[in-house]
């Protein structure tokens, strides 16, 4: 019998989660999406490619759609937009992670179908916004506020509109595929947006001079 005041601590806490399985499943997911697209994507195929079992995947992700969202998070990363001391440099670096991810065949092939699933499934939509959309948007919003504090962006700028403008071109091209997602797209987007909301001091330093033909 335990002495008075002694707390018995259970020794069986269950098997710890093996993060190597998580990494293998996420990597297998993106490879399969690149190879076969979203329509033919199955958890059975992921299990075989990752060297695990479907029940092991189900314990981690409630559906294949939630797995795809997590794979996108892993592909795009969740690092905040950097603070380099240069407003347009920060924004270009942040948007470039988005354009780089959507330029890959796996992300590009899954995006239209995933958007349709998000629209039809509130739980999936909440997961997408919580895990991917909102953190990226918040990081870019922080970079824009730094730009206001530096005197680069007008203080009356509509931040929500700016956030939509900065990201929407990449999402739009990934959704419809009418134009390519180029290596310079992030810089092109940021410089066009900045030309509309920058302060005179930023314009004087960074806008390209007009050259007469």
**Beta content:** under 5%
Number of helices: 10
CATH-level-2 architecture = Orthogonal Bundle
CATH topological fold name: Tetracycline Repressor, domain 2
- Report the major sheet: none
Alpha-beta content class: mainly alpha
The name of the CATH superfamily reads Tetracycline Repressor, domain 2
Description:
Helix content is 69%, strand content 0%. With 213 residues, it is mainly alpha-helical. The chain has a single domain (19-206), classed as Tetracycline Repressor, domain 2 (Orthogonal Bundle), CATH 1.10.357.10. Helix 1 crosses helix 4, helix 4 (64-76) packs parallel to helix 7 (122-150) and helix 5 (87-103) runs antiparallel to helix 7. Residues 1-14 have low confidence and may be disordered.
Task: Summarize it.
With 213 residues, this protein is mainly alpha-helical. The protein has helices at 19-36, 43-50, 54-60, 64-76, 87-103, 105-120, 122-150, 159-176, 185-197, 200-206. It has one domain (19-206): Tetracycline Repressor, domain 2 (Orthogonal Bundle), CATH 1.10.357.10.
Descriptive keywords:
Tetracycline Repressor, domain 2; single chain; 10 helices; mainly alpha; elongated
Task: Please specify the SSE layout and strand pairing.
Layout: H1 19-36, H2 43-50, H3 54-60, H4 64-76, H5 87-103, H6 105-120, H7 122-150, H8 159-176, H9 185-197, H10 200-206
Helix pairs in contact: 1-2, 1-4, 1-6, 4-6, 4-7, 5-7, 5-8, 5-9, 6-7, 8-9
């Amino acid at each position: 019998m335990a002495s008075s005041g002694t707390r018995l601590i259970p020794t069986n806490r269950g098997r710890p989660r093996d993060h190597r399985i998580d990494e293998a499943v996420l990597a297998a997911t993106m490879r399969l999406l690149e190879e076969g697209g979203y329509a033919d994507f199955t958890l059975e195929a992921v299990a075989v490619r990752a060297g695990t079992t479907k029940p092991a995947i189900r314990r981690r992700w409630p559906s294949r759609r939630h797995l795809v969202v997590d794979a996108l998070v892993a592909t795009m990363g969740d690092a905040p937009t950097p603070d380099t001391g240069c407003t347009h440099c920060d924004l270009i670096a942040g948007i470039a992670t988005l354009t780089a991810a959507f330029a890959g065949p796996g992300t590009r092939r899954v995006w239209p179908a995933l958007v349709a699933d998000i629209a039809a499934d509130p739980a999936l939509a909440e997961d997408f916004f919580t895990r991917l959309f909102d953190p990226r948007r918040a990081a870019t919003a922080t970079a824009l506020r730094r730009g206001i504090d530096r005197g680069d962006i007008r203080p009356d700028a509509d931040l929500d509109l700016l956030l939509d403008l900065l990201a929407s071109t990449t999402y739009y091209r990934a959704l419809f595929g009418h134009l390519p997602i180029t290596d310079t797209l992030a810089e092109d987007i940021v410089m066009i947006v900045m030309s509309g909301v920058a302060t005179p001091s930023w314009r004087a330093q960074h806008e390209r001079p007009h050259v007469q033909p």
